[in-house]
Amino acid sequence: MKILHTSDWHLGRTLHRADLTPAFELWVDHVVDTVREREVDALLISGDVYDRSVPPAPMVELFSRTLRRLAQLTTVILISGNHDSPQRLGFGAELFQERIVIRTDPLRCTQPVEVRDRAGKLGALVYPVPYLDPDVERRRLAGGDARVGVDDSDSAKLLERSHAAVMRAAVGRIAADIQHGPHAGQPLARIVMAHAFVAGGAASESERDISVGGVEVVPASLFALDGAGERATRGLSYVALGHLHSPQRVGGAPEPGTSGMSELPPMRYSGSPIAFSFSETRPKSSVLLTFEGGVLVEEELIPAPVWRPIVTIEAPLTEVLSPAHHNDRSKFARILVTDPARPADLTTRVRAAFPHALEIRHVVDPAATRHSTADTRRLDALSVLRQFMTESGRRDLTEEEDHVMVTAWEAVRTGEKE
């Protein structure tokens, strides 16, 4: 059985206001092609389908078309992330065709999605856990029958106000279903989808904070299922995570096929398919999972297509404009110019060479900044002006520049108008 793990599509997002629509179109075509060519049995999208709760209409149309294409090929399972509106994303979910499953209600996490192979044989159970807002879910997940997801939280005390507490409650319900549910004991892959910040993950600049009261990290140990329910059991085959944008493994479980042992199941962030900040330098990818008899036997990273690469160049202007960076001129660029003095017409010159430069800054080593200890109250006005121009420009004025400044000062002082 093959399952493709993706997350954090963030349809509608921009990069420093640059339109990424062609990148999103390229990505969805890649997903459809991968599902078709690799005969994928299920596609997972672990939250943040859209970049904001009210997505742009063109992105809604793009996603709708993509779901129609995918429904002809595979089962699609998606959850809401912290950027999505659960109400909008989940609207009409019960009316969708059988192969499109949208889960936005955490109380349904005990109702696994059955995934069947091409021959119709049941091979995996997917437990979708959408983003858990502690302020909302600490009451809803506090009580109830874990096996059926009944919400009797009105009579239950509140959970701790943290991401760990609400995730622990959700995973406890899943553990109970694994042990007591209708498929208990069967050799099936059991996969949890979750949108959270799991301890050990490396964040980037483009994730937006999901912390509540400063307690945002979820311990990886929760997914071992030890202590998650009254009668804990081990049983997860994989945890398909969303939220962090750099692809990475977390939890310390050994690679599939190795002889290492771990209390934890394999868990991974697939990462976003597109770079949304200049800090995201790792290659983007999705994760193709292969299961045999309920056991994960292979994780394959499928490289994501790159519409326009990103690059950061930090150097003096002469080097930035040199042939050494000629191949970077078609990329989205962040240009940090390090000349001691700010070059004249900096932005114009850089943008002429780098038409897709999104950030252009003059940066100076703080250690090189000169601080004058002179008491400006004892200096005449022209001396103060000269000192200001020298320190702000990181160089002495030329004779011509000094003459212009003196002339302007004299005109102001004497009331002349030129």
Automatic annotation (TrEMBL):
The gene is sbcD. It comes from Actinotignum schaalii FB123-CNA-2. This is Nuclease SbcCD subunit D. Belongs to the SbcD family. The keyword Hydrolase applies. Residues 307-390 form the Nuclease SbcCD subunit D C-terminal domain. The keyword Secreted does not apply. SbcCD cleaves DNA hairpin structures. These structures can inhibit DNA replication and are intermediates in certain DNA recombination reactions. The complex acts as a 3'->5' double strand exonuclease that can open hairpins. It also has a 5' single-strand endonuclease activity. NCBIfam families: sbcd. Heterodimer of SbcC and SbcD. GO terms for biological process: DNA recombination; DNA replication. Residues 1-90 form the Calcineurin-like phosphoesterase domain. GO terms for molecular function: 3'-5' exonuclease activity; endonuclease activity. Keywords: DNA recombination, DNA replication, Endonuclease, Exonuclease, Hydrolase, Nuclease. CDD domains: MPP_Mre11_N (cd00840).
